[in-house]
Design a protein that fits this description.
The protein is mostly helical and about 60 residues long. It is built from two helices and no strands. The mean pLDDT is about 90. The chain has helices at about 1-20, 30-60.
């Protein structure tokens, strides 16, 4: 799970860093990108075990 999380956060972190260093982002946009990525990862981590249990029950 940690490797998937790192992979999913890599692109938004890079985009925020690049956009900030090139002055392409308005104040708060880099934070919004990272917050959105973290919410997505959190929801995925929360839902994945439940989906796995439901799929396992359906298979039997």
């Amino acid at each position: 799970m940690a490797a998937i999380t790192c992979a999913q956060l890599g692109v938004p972190v890079a985009a925020a860093a690049l956009g900030t260093s090139l002055d392409l982002l308005r104040p708060g946009e880099a934070t919004a990108m990272l917050l959105g990525a973290m919410v997505t990862v959190s929801v995925t981590a929360f839902v994945a075990p439940r989906v796995h249990r439901i799929a396992a029950r359906s298979a039997t």
